[in-house]
Amino acid sequence: MPADEIRGTTPGTAPVPLSVLDLVTVGAGRTAGEALRTSVDISRLAESRGYHRYWVAEHHSMPGVASSSPAVILAHLAAHTERIRLGSGGVMLPNHAPLVIAEQFGTLEAMAPGRIDLGLGRAPGTDGATAAALRRSDRLNEGADDFPQQLSELTRFLDDDFPDGHPYARIHAVPGPVQATSPGGVQSPHRPPIWLLGSSGFSARLAGMLGLPFAFAHHFSAQNTVPALDLYRETFRPSEILDAPYALIGVSALATDDEKEARRQVLAAALNMVRLRTGRPGLVPTPEEAEAYEFSAMEREFVDTWNANVIHGTADEVRTGLDELQKRTGADELMLTANAHGGDVRLRSYELIADAYGLPTPA
Asked: pTM for the complete prediction?
């Protein structure tokens, strides 16, 4: 697998490749259909402006996040783009049978050859009750503890290389490499590169030991970013996939034409997180609703802490914040997620950041 499928090129004056993480957020007064159309618009903008990849996250039972089915969304985005890498950030492996994921991403690879990434996480992407409904089991810790075994099984399905005598040796993920070895087969044996995602040290260590690329969720676990990246680099062993560590970090970043508007938008997104963390998930509120909301002292403390890790403001301010973050962490790639009530605000943010870094403009 060529490393250039993992490493991107640095566009314009950006310190490292820039990419997009899409939560397909749904604002109050908006529909999931509108949010998905916004995702198409952002993916096409990202492609035209030189962003390296576009990932969709898996979340469940959250009214304000319409990304419960990453593979379905990625198929839709593949039909509306031509070059940008598309992937999961991530698929939560314990929620699914490895064979199902191998089939889904083999299908995506057949749809968009050479531009699909398979990012995997071990968290449920939701609360415990929803995770139990997804997995048909209340033994949630067991699913997370089995992650290395599940990863190994998924990798063997993707590579179609179970050893003789294995119970799954005669089972093949289709589309997949087996089609290239069948009589008359012309199917490409290529498969999507696997990334491990994490917000603590577990996946960092595992990614390093396996020589896989690593994606860290700085956008909601900022205090663990540097320790996790250090652990990944310390434990990294060269592999057929990578000869050196490669780590990206997810970053909450919102650029607007006016600094005050940026503060209004991130306040609304923070109110949405307050409600989610207190068991009241809903649609992303409008900035007007957030400004009128009476935060308790505890809620205000949460908002201040949360927004301290959101790089927001004018395009120049966001560029400065991203440059400083990359320098501090040594991240090899920055994956930006813009959380706001309106799709137009999110779209404008990616455009402003592209302009600030002198990214290519469409012909």
From this structure: 0.94
Hey, what long-range contacts does 189-193 have (CB within 8 A, 24 or more apart)? 190/1, 190/109, 190/113, 190/114, 191/105, 191/106, 191/109, 191/158, 191/159, 192/87, 192/105, 192/108, 192/109, 192/116, 192/117, 192/118, 192/158, 193/1, 193/5, 193/6, 193/117, 193/118, 193/241
* Exposed e or buried b per residue across 279-307, where buried means at least 16 C-beta atoms within 10 angstroms of its C-beta: eebebbbbbeebeeeebeeebeebbeebb
120 beta partners:
91, 196
CA contacts within 13 A on the Cβ side of 126: 24
255 Cα distance to chain centroid: 19
Structure confidence by residue, pLDDT tens digits, 28-64: 999 999 999 999 999 999 999 999 999 999 999 899 9
Confidence at residue 1, expressed as pLDDT on a 0 to 100 scale: 47
Q: SS3 sequence, the chain?
A: CCHHHCCCCCCCCCCCCEEEEECCECECCCCHHHHHHHHHHHHHHHHHHCCCEEEECCCCCCCCECCCCHHHHHHHHHHHCCCCEEEEEEEEHHHCCHHHHHHHHHHHHHHCCCCEEEEEECCCCCCHHHHHHHHCCCCHHHHHHCHHHHHHHHHHHHHCCCCCCCCCCCCCCCCCCHHHHCCCCCCCCCCCCEEEEECCHHHHHHHHHHCCCEEECCCCCHHHHHHHHHHHHHHCCCCCCCCCCCEEEEEEEEECCCHHHHHHHHHHHHHHHHHHHCCCCCCECCHHHHHHCCCCHHHHHHHHHHHCCCEEECHHHHHHHHHHHHHHHCCCEEEEECCCCCHHHHHHHHHHHHHHCCCCCCC
Q: Tens digits of per-residue pLDDT, 216-264? A: 999 989 999 999 999 999 999 999 999 999 999 999 999 999 999 999 9
